[in-house]
Amino acid sequence: MDLGQLGLREKLIEELYAKELFNINLFGWKIPVADTVVVMWIIMAFLIITAFLLTRQMKPVPRGKQNLVEVIVGFFNSFSRDVVGHHWRVFAPYVGTVALFLAFANTISLFNFIPGGDYLYKVTGLNFFQHIPDNFLKPPTRNINIPASLAVLTMGVCIFEGIAIKKPKNWLRSFFEPSPIVFPFKVFDYFIRPASLTLRLFGNILGAFIVMELLYLTLPALLPAPLSIYFDIFDGFLQAYIFVFLSLFYMAEAVE
Amino acid sequence: MFDFGPSFLWVIVNLLVLYFILKIILFKPVTEFMENRSISIEKDLENASKSKAEAEQLRQERMQKLLSLEDETEQILREAHLKAQKEYEEIINAAYERAESLMAKAEENIAAQREEMYKNLRNEIVSLALSSASKVIEANMDNKANRALVDKFIKEEGAA
Fold first, then answer.
1. Separation in Å, CA of B53 to nearest CA in chain A
2. How many CB atoms lie within 10 A of CB B9?
3. Does residue B37 form part of some domain?
4. Could you tell me the residue range of the domain that residue B115 belongs to?
5. Number of domains forming the structure of chain B
6. Is ipTM beyond 0.95?
7. Could you tell me which residues come within 8 angstroms of residue A211 by beta carbon, excluding any fewer than 6 positions away?
8. Which of A19, A230, A7, A48 is nearest to A136 (CA)?
9. Does the beta carbon of A149 lie under 8 angstroms from any beta carbon of chain B?
10. pLDDT 10s digit of each residue in chain A, 256 long?
11. Are the beta carbons of B18 and A37 separated by less than 8 Å?
């Protein structure tokens, strides 16, 4: 941390921006890949591999790892059953995916003890690692793109399943119920809800991130540890929970 | 921080991919597995209570059957007792009758034999008397008239 070259403010802003790590060339387009996306890929790979390893050889009497899987899946199933009711089957996998992803995305900065790219490059000699900066595993949700796309996806699911379950005619009619006056508000809902979902998640994670970064920059020893339990772990899980709860709530309203 | 851009699309694509993969390898199979398990457990419990009820019914039926069988056995035993008693009496009576008839016959036989013996004895005595008398009178008394005479005498003696 070189505070001499950059002021504290610049340093913080520097930390907050997603850095473009490399580009992918696809049909002549250059698609930039930011570090948030790479972190997301890491989380995805971890989730998929873990899910694959944990769901092999399921037995009627659960033992060991199978208990974990059943608790997690059962939690999301009963969670969506409690909120959505009859149509919970459609939403449980989506909500579970978003919640698992958010839970890991919000708390991933815990894993920053893993050495950065320079070290790995020195050890392995692979050029690939040069692209990876130090202190790389920062929560991708601190960048507004990720909460925003999650919220847009949630609203997309609301609209899609609303039309699929209610049938298009009834879905359109629901904009005018209980009275035609509500029509503009119902339309606004489809913009306000994703915005509020986005900003709630983004603001909370950003706030926690800024507090923790400030602490690391000014007082690197001792104090960050207990506060990290709140800001990194508890706040991360809490925001993930709030996000999926509100998503489910909107979905329940869309299909009821 | 607020730079909307290509990452936005990246995240949507990533999330959709993650959603479909996790749905296929995690949520769907595990949910199905758990539901199948609860269905099979419910079915097992239902079967268990059904077979328990059946067993209870069977037990009651067996119990009743056993009770009626005991009654029947008692009746049969009583009848057998009665029959045995009757047969016993019949046999005993028959045996008495037979014994009595045998006794009567035997007595008859004895009487007949005694009669015969007496007759023979009398003949002997007559012959003996006749021979001794003829010896005494040196005459042959052994003819029909004499014999009748002696018989008459002995009969009168025997009667006396």
1. 27
2. 14
3. no
4. 44-159
5. 1
6. no
7. A227, A231
8. A19
9. yes
10. 444 555 777 777 777 777 777 777 667 677 777 778 888 888 999 999 999 888 887 777 777 888 888 899 999 999 999 988 888 888 899 999 999 998 888 888 777 766 666 777 777 767 766 666 666 777 787 778 888 899 999 999 989 988 998 888 888 888 888 888 889 988 898 899 999 999 999 888 888 888 887 887 777 777 777 888 888 888 889 999 999 999 999 988 888 7
11. no
